[in-house]
Design brief:
Elements lengths: L1 H12 L18 H18 L3 H10 L6 E4 L6 E3 L15 H4 L7 H20 L6 H11 L7 H15 E3 L1 H12 L3 E6 L5 H10 L9 E3 H4 L7 H10 L6 E5 L3 H9 L3 E4 L10
Parallel strand pairs: 1-4, 1-6, 4-5, 6-7
Antiparallel strand pairs: 2-3
Length: 279
């Protein structure tokens, strides 16, 4: 029995946790017990990385002098959606005029998600990047559902309208943003997102958050993401500062915490995530 337990523990140690920053190889198969144990370990580690609000406030009130640049994520950080999961954005598409004349046999959220998945695959085959924009997603959506490509622009606008309706600023994070500006720091915004850069800038403006175009980094614009490190590398090159002098604030334990730290940046993982999305 001890031999079996030891073998099980050895297999567990080999689990690939690339997203957690562990350099291990994934075994061919995982038992349910091993998978559950790994999940619990991952979430325990994730929980340890989150910083409480009082500690974040102390950094912004007393320790910003060591940083030249403060970077913020957008969704579930500067802005939160009034829904419990990001995919529920697609549920509200049916109420937009551009979609009301269209008939679908499959639920619209599933069709929208399928179009995004395929558009990412197609872009990767074409240029080696999965960072699509909303127009590309809806071009695929129209082709999949027998809709004229002439409607792409109106469908994009409809989804942008839904985002406007659902998004509100996060009071706590918006307060940190203002503190960074008042401290004279260069403040940048970074998002892994298919929404267009001009739209995101306008959306932030509508919600009371001002950001210069040159300080806004969007994966669909750059064709590189925070997750892949390409967006962070671009940011570091543009800012002409040492990575350690950049402090990033976000909600995702991988793209907003592990990834910037891999490049030597400092990162804060906050607990103000509004949606129930799991990684």
């Amino acid at each position: 029995m001890e031999t079996e337990n030891a073998a099980s523990e050895e297999r567990l140690e080999q689990i690939d946790a690339r997203e957690a920053g562990w350099d291990r190889e994934l075994p061919d198969r995982l038992s349910y017990a091993e998978l559950r144990s790994f999940s619990e370990q991952f979430r325990e580690q994730e929980a340890r990385n989150y910083m409480p609000d009082d500690a974040i406030c102390r950094i912004f009130e007393h320790d910003l002098t060591q940083y030249s640049v403060i970077s913020f994520d957008i969704f579930d950080t500067l802005l939160v959606r009034r829904i419990d999961h990001p995919i529920n954005v697609f549920y509200y598409l049916q109420f937009e005029q551009a979609f009301q004349a269209l008939k679908f046999k499959t639920p619209l959220p599933l069709l929208r998600k399928a179009a995004e998945d395929l558009s990412r695959q197609l872009l990767y085959k074409s240029i080696g990047s999965t960072e699509v924009n909303l127009s590309e997603i809806y071009a695929v959506f129209c082709k999949q559902n027998g809709i004229s490509l002439d409607l792409v622009a109106s469908l994009v606008e409809a989804e942008e309208n839904v985002e406007r309706e659902l998004c509100i600023p996060s009071p706590f994070i918006a307060g940190l943003y203002d503190m960074a500006l008042q401290a004279g720091k260069r403040v940048v915004v970074a998002s892994d997102m298919y929404l267009r850069k001009p739209f995101l800038r306008a959306l932030l403006h509508e919600k009371g958050i001002e950001v210069l175009a040159e300080n806004l980094y969007v994966s669909s614009d750059l064709r590189g993401s925070k997750q892949s490190l390409d967006l962070y590398r671009k940011m570091i090159r543009d800012l002409h500062v040492a990575p350690a002098s950049i402090l990033h604030v976000g909600d995702h334990p991988i793209s907003d915490y592990e990834r910037p730290r891999q490049l030597g940046m400092r990162a804060i993982l906050h607990t103000h995530k509004a949606s129930s999305e799991s990684i």
